[in-house]
Design goal:
127 residues; mainly beta; Jelly Rolls; four-stranded antiparallel sheet; elongated
């Protein structure tokens, strides 16, 4: 099955972390199936730092559910954290499959993290 991409939007930014679990990037209010992928740069981390990064999706249209959690400690030898392509189903009627990435410091110094993501809306799927 092939897919034709309609709109592709690229996002670049910095998560100015302060406290608690904070959203780095999110996709919401989509009315068509979409794909999302991207990177977070962990190169600012140093000895003594520990951060937890989580991915969430709204399966029921209301509540975010965590489906992936990773903990990173100290300076990162491979600091480019990759989020592989995810196809997120939704419909005009439901408008419900939101997706987000969060970060939380559990030890160490407050850091800022650069990110880049791309969101591609499906135009059509070919069988």
């Amino acid at each position: 099955m092939g897919v034709t991409i309609g709109t592709r939007t690229t996002y670049f930014g910095t998560c100015d972390y302060s406290t608690g679990e904070e959203t780095v990037f999110d996709v919401d209010a989509k009315s068509e199936v979409y794909m999302v992928e991207g990177f977070i740069d962990l190169s600012e981390m140093a000895a003594g730092d520990t951060y937890v990064i989580k991915e969430y999706v709204k399966i029921d249209g209301t509540n975010y559910r965590c489906y992936g959690s990773r903990t990173f400690s100290g300076a990162q030898a491979e600091p480019a954290l990759r989020f592989h392509t995810k196809t997120i189903p939704c419909s005009v009627a439901d408008d419900n499959m939101d997706w987000k990435i969060t970060i939380e410091k559990t030890a160490g110094t407050v850091r800022d993290f650069d990110y880049s993501f791309v969101v591609c809306d499906y135009l059509e799927a070919e069988e």
